[in-house]
Design a protein that fits this description.
Blueprint: E1 2-4, H1 7-13, E2 31-34, E3 39-45, E4 51-55, H2 69-73, E5 78-81, H3 98-112, E6 118-123, H4 125-136, E7 141-147, H5 160-183, H6 197-203, H7 210-219, E8 240-245, H8 256-274, E9 280-285, H9 291-294, H10 296-309
Parallel strand pairs: 4-5, 4-6, 6-7, 7-8, 8-9
Antiparallel strand pairs: 1-2, 2-3, 3-5
Helix pairs in contact: 3-4, 5-7
């Protein structure tokens, strides 16, 4: 079952300079799709195969692709969505896991009628989700674009100093969640400063909800984010583009020297991601983590190039002309 919601909002969200009447419209763009007693928010534009499906980073939703999806949608079918509990999607009472979220996406695409093959684009933690999707449903996937993706071994390879800093940060957020639950007052979610204002007007009323903060908190420690697979078992047969950001400022209360070493290790892990497919391309860009906001053109170009040439993408990493 699908419910279409306020189609006029779609024009507001997909236009960086929105008409004045957008200010008076509230509600999610796109449609709400029943995935079995819960509804997930799905926003699709354009036409053309393969269908490009965007997967957002930790605790983020479809708005994370506001500068990329409209451009891709001018040439291909392009879909973004909100995972359970995030933005406009209903929460899931089941424990949160990578396997469960991948199943949600598969159910969403099937029930919505969106047709494969799918070119999956994953940012940060979303990169892990789309790789798992490609491993579980290989016949549905045309290719992957990994935008500064998380790595399964990211925490396993962290030094003791970095692991301790991460644990303290997570514990502090856990205590904050407890205080918020007692008071019933959750602060507004923070957004990247390049999210269009028209979209923020729709999002902010929901960004202080317990469901959204709970989903975000639980995505910090998914029980199956790490795996014990061998390098051979992690291999991917679809073409893969890996986009890696290099500008990672030292987080507050993290030891600077250990963080610098951590980022060097992270680059090696990014290179390992690019080695998983015999048909891969690795692009390194001087931006911070949200490449899709800070250099959307490189993300758009990578998606369109792979969508155009996914059947013939060679092992050299460049498409045939």
């Amino acid at each position: 079952m699908m419910t279409r919601v306020l189609p006029l909002v779609l024009l507001c969200v997909l236009t960086v300079s929105s008409p004045a009447w957008c200010e008076t419209v509230a509600g999610p763009p796109g449609r709400m799709v029943d995935v079995g007693g819960r509804r997930l928010h799905l926003l699709c534009v354009g036409a053309g195969s393969p269908t490009v499906v965007f997967e957002s980073g930790l605790g983020e939703g479809s708005y994370a692709w506001a500068l990329v999806q409209p451009a891709v949608g001018r040439q291909y079918r392009a879909c973004s969505y909100d995972r359970s509990g995030i933005a406009f999607s209903d929460p899931d009472p089941a424990p949160r896991s990578v396997a469960g979220l991948v199943s949600d996406l598969h159910e969403l695409l099937g029930r919505s009628g969106e047709r494969g093959p799918y070119l999956l684009v994953g940012h940060s933690l979303g990169g892990l989700f789309v790789r798992r999707y490609a491993m579980r449903y290989p016949d549905e996937v045309a290719g992957l674009v990994l935008v500064d993706s998380s790595h399964e071994d990211g925490r396993r390879t962290a030094s003791r100093e970095i692991a301790d800093a991460q644990a303290k940060a997570l514990a502090a957020r856990g205590e904050q969640m407890k205080r918020w639950r007692v008071s019933g007052q959750f602060e507004e979610m923070g957004f990247h400063d390049k999210v269009p204002k028209s979209m923020l007007r729709v999002l902010k009323p929901r960004s202080g909800s317990e469901n959204w903060w709970d989903a975000r908190f639980r995505e910090n420690s998914l029980p199956d984010a790490q795996d014990d697979l061998t390098p051979e078992q992690r291999r991917l047969q679809v073409p893969v583009v890996v986009i890696t950001a290099t500008e990672w400022p030292t987080p507050r209360n993290y030891p600077p020297i250990a963080w610098k070493q951590h980022i060097e290790t992270r680059m090696r892990l990014q290179e390992e991601l690019a080695s998983r497919s015999p048909r891969s391309k690795h692009i390194v860009v001087r931006t911070e983590h949200h490449v899709q906001f800070e250099n959307p053109d490189i993300v758009i170009k990578s998606i369109v190039e792979l969508a155009r040439h996914w059947r013939t993408w060679p092992s050299t990493g460049s498409p045939s002309q």
